[in-house]
Amino acid sequence: MEGDKIFTIDGVRYKCTFMYGYNDHYYGTVYNDETGRYIGQLVDIRKCDSEVEERVTNFVKENI
């Protein structure tokens, strides 16, 4: 597991848990940090990626 990172999007806190998964892929599982609601999962994303904030923000806006 790579760990968690908190993102604030439109005033709401979202937590993304980053982990290594099957077939050499990395995953980010996104939750609403305030309610615990599951938002979804991103594939091939790592906590240290330069575009991680942009990808998580776009993903949340598309899926809420």
Taken from the alpha-carbon principal axes, the silhouette is globular
Helix and strand run: EEEEH
Structural class comes to: alpha+beta
**Overall number of strands:** 4
| Overall average residue pLDDT | 96
Number of helices, where a helix is a run of at least 4 consecutive DSSP H or I residues: 1
Distance N terminus to C terminus?
A: 25 Å
Q: Strand fraction band?
A: over 45%
Largest sheet: 4 strands, antiparallel
Uncertain segments:
none
Radius of gyration: 11 Å
Spatial strand sequence of the major β-sheet: 1-2-3-4
Helix-residue proportion? 10-25%
Structure description:
This protein has one helix at 52-63, and strands at 3-9, 12-20, 26-32, 38-43. It is 19% helix and 45% strand. The chain is of the alpha+beta class and 64 residues long. It starts with a strand and ends with a helix. Strands 1-2-3-4 form a 4-stranded antiparallel sheet. A hairpin with a 2-residue loop joins strand 1 and strand 2. It is built from 1 helix and 4 strands, in the order ββββα. The mean pLDDT is 96. It is globular and about 35 Å long.
